[in-house]
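Worked problem 6 (solution included).
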Amino acid sequence: MKILITSIVDLQSSQHNRPHQLVKYLSKKHDVTFLSINDWWKAGQGDLKSYSSDFEEIFKKVNILHLTEEKVSPIIQELLSSKRVKDIAKEGFDVHLNYNTLISGYAAARGINTVYDIADDLGAMIRSSPQIPRLLRPFGGALGDYLINRNINISKKVTVTTDTLIDSYNIPMNKSKVIPNGVDTELFRNCGNVKREELDPDCFIIGYVGVLREWVDLEPVMSALKGLDASVKLIIIGKEGKFNENKALVKKYGVADRVQFVGMIPYSQVPQYISSMDVCIIPFKRNAISNNALPLKLFEYMACEKPVISTEIRGVKKIARDRVLYANSSKDYISQIRNLLDNRELRLKLGKNGRKFVQENYDWSAICMKMEKILYEAGRINNE
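Solution. The predicted structure is:
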């Protein structure tokens, strides 16, 4: 198949996410053109070339294009995208996969049969986006909801990461399909304590890996550190988003000597760092964004056989149930971390069970195969 993917995520300038795995799988057998917003501003947040070095060969197989090469706002890029999309669509595609876009994907869907892939509550993300002036966010969120519904209506199929998104957007059941996030279980596995010496061989390590965007809330964890044994240390890997704000929080709570900011690391090394942690956390704010989310890090932590403490959000709780522990406050974090600190057997049990669970249910190769089948079906409709 000749596949056009429009995306809100810039493949080469973002931390690895759902579209990276879809492209990795689809580009093995299909001709893939990837058109996205140009995330030029992320270049100053970390060494993205080093981070994505292991994906360079995959990138070479894909025709990667941007809406513009100009350094302008992503909102402006989307608003002015129609002509660019229409010109590219003239090349002739069998099917179109729209990943989380509002305007550029809709423009493509007007000429190509489309599968609309919704991975987040986009309206809620707009309402809290720091890139939009606060007074305009409610209007932006309402406009976002309107555009999402237009994309749903024009698409042949709508795939979502969680069934909560089906409810949130009232997507017809005969049009929707849950295609969850997953993990590469060959890459993400227990690598032993290869990075332990670098982190701290003598401490009990709580670890967070990922972006530091507006839905991430590490403050309760930093507050909890003060109530925990001095041997407990927090490691934060990632830089995109509120990096400086989180550094300020460390000083506010007086735990600078117990928090280490590693920053951005090559994606291929992420499993090694996760494997060298004792407990991994998903500290999200409880809001519409997080409640409709299914974080990749959940599966990556579990694949590396690590026990997980997560904010009690719908997506995680419905999938993981009692395979992870939950914490909604600093008091909860203190209790759950102490529980794991004192119980090595429980840590091992949660880790082993988590690995088995994701291997059987959430391996990316099986998930991408399901997406490929949906694209084939949409492509056949296009050729009838």
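Discussion: The chain has two domains: 2-182+363-383, 196-361.
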